Amino acid sequence: MNSGIPIEITGLSKHFGSVTAVEDLSFTVQPGRVTGFLGPNGAGKTTTLRVLLGLVKASSGTATFGGTPYHALKRPLETVGAALDASFHPGRTARNHLRVTATAAGIAASRVPVVLEQVGLTEFADRRVGGYSLGMRQRLALAFTLLGDPSVFVLDEPINGLDPEGIKWIRLFLQRLAQDGRTVLVSSHLLSEVQQSVDDVVIISRGRLAKTGTLSSLELESAPRTIADSPDRPRLAAALAQAGLEYTEGRNGFIVAEPDPGLVGHAAFVGGVELKSLHRLKSGLEESFLALVNGEVDHVEIAEPGPPEASGAPEASAAPDEAADAAAPTDAAAPTDAAEPAPPDDRESPPADGAKE
Ligand SMILES: Nc1ncnc2c1ncn2[C@@H]1O[C@H](COP(=O)(O)OP(=O)(O)OP(=O)(O)O)[C@@H](O)[C@H]1O
């Protein structure tokens, strides 16, 4: 228990008919840390988590817990606590829900009062769940994840809709899990929602990895920068290099590590390059996040304590176009997945399902 099991996603792709939900995704989630799995709606977070939990099959690639896929875990609920789309029968109590799941999973009934206490629901344990607030339901979903006292937690949008007090509570809850040496992966579509709770971030956009690293590496990137574009990008790249300005190439131009657009414009002028756009990128974590997920920045991976990504010759211009081509699939294509084969059933259900009627 708490032996430090990493989550390992390697070359993972998932297609629903013609819709690409996840494309060649690779990242590792380390034990002892809270990792935010971030991306806008439709980025592919839930699909990745569903593959990880054996609820849908990958088109290619692997998603494992220290090398073992979910369906091959000997005691899944005692390895992984997952909260994904938890729904509860309104007429039953929290205690009853938890008892049923514990019995089905061969977990001692004595764990039920323990987990109720851990999530602060003891005094409401015998009330019908139908009368619970959203925050109480979120806590109940977390109680399910704790039943087997697992080493790994996979939580889909656990902070969504919580009030400030609930957010503070869950922040401490997650940090305590990580301090115990457990692996904690928390998805969210808002960086601001989780930024006080996470140590590391994995950011995806349109099913592809946009960034992995520590939250502090993202903070490093959030210094004010300038974005500049030209009809002749190679010449602009040369002019920037000539002026000693560091840059990365994004879909909308070069992101230059210089807060003053005037200096970037001057470098272009000296290089005799026409500009078609020149503006300052706002500073701040949220802006960095939005720039990443909106495709202004291409895939960057920062090693701790990584310096800001920049410099050197721009990458081949095909990269931004590829990113653009991987336009977010739409929900309109959802029916193609209705025929998604059910996952193999020769295993215990993940706890989230255990919470369902
Ligand atoms: N069962 C399905 N059939 C068809 N398309 C699907 C299916 N599930 C997800 N998709 C598509 O895959 C893409 C990724 O969806 P996913 O739910 O994984 O994203 P997400 O990042 O979790 O978004 P959200 O925060 O809105 O839940 C979306 O375009 C979605 O419409």
From TrEMBL:
PROSITE patterns: ABC_TRANSPORTER_2. One of its GO terms (molecular function) is ATP hydrolysis activity. It holds the Pfam family ABC_tran. It comes from the Bacteria. Residues 302-357 are annotated as: Disordered. The keyword ATP-binding applies. Residues 344-357 have a biased composition (Basic and acidic residues). Residues 309-340 have a biased composition (Low complexity). InterPro entries: AAA+_ATPase (IPR003593), ABC_transporter-like_ATP-bd (IPR003439), P-loop_NTPase (IPR027417). Residues 7-231 form the ABC transporter domain. Keywords: ATP-binding, Nucleotide-binding, Transport. PANTHER family: ABC TRANSPORTER, ATP-BINDING PROTEIN (PTHR43335:SF4). Belongs to the ABC transporter superfamily. This is ABC-2 type transport system ATP-binding protein. It comes from Agromyces terreus.
